[in-house]
Amino acid sequence: MLYIIRHGKTDWNVKHKLQGKTDVPLNDEGRAMAEKAREEYKDVHFDIVFCSPLVRARETAEILLRDRDIPIIIDDRLREMCFGKYEGVEYSFDVPGCPVNVIFQEPENYKTPLEGAESFEDLFERTGEFLKEKVEPELEKGKDVLIVGHGAMNSSIVSQIRNYPRKDFWSGGIENCKLMRLK
User: Fold this and answer.
1) What CA–CA distance (Å, rounded) separates 96 from 75?
2) Tens digits of per-residue pLDDT, 73-132?
């Protein structure tokens, strides 16, 4: 079985700031969310956990799996999508014509990467490679796999597994610290 979960909240989530690859830690609410998820999912079996290298995901994984003897394997391909110069922008939806909003509002129209940002093609390439090289072999062995990551990165995995068209990229609804069963 394949599961995916998004990290707990950070101060940047609260302020509606685009995080991307910026390494922002969990806040107290995020830690509490991870603790709640730990209790809620304590009976869900995982053989192996793959995790983003960013601290908010690593800390979520560590809290979620505390007292369990499950390896957490960090993989750089699970880092969040890079939003380039727009990382740190607050309330981008309130900025008329803000170019980064196309990623969220019309993902099918995000064709040319914004200044310093990652393209969907690059995001899908690295997460697709990860799925093929790391996840599929474990699933073929009958293992239960958990991926701990981020909103856009997780959405790219959900989109690939469920064959969503690009316009439905965000339809998976990746909430903080909510476990999603994929296959």
Assistant:
1) 36
2) 999 999 999 999 999 999 999 988 899 999 999 999 998 888 999 999 999 999 999 999
Cite the DSSP H helix spans in 5-150.
11-14, 28-40, 55-64, 101-105, 120-130, 136-140
Specify the long-range contacts of residues 102-106, CB closer than 8 Å, at least 24 apart: 103/152, 104/170, 106/167
Catalytic entry in 29, 39, 80, 136: 80
pTM: 0.96
| Burial grade of 67 (CB within 10 A; 0-12, 13-18, 19 or more) | exposed
Active site residue 7: yes
Instruction: Give the length of the chain.
Output: 183
Residue 183 pLDDT exceeds 90: no
Residue 73 CA, chain-centre distance (Å), reads: 15
Which residue type sits at 56?
Answer: R
Contact 90, 96 (CB under 8 A): no
Residue whose tokens read 């391909």: 77
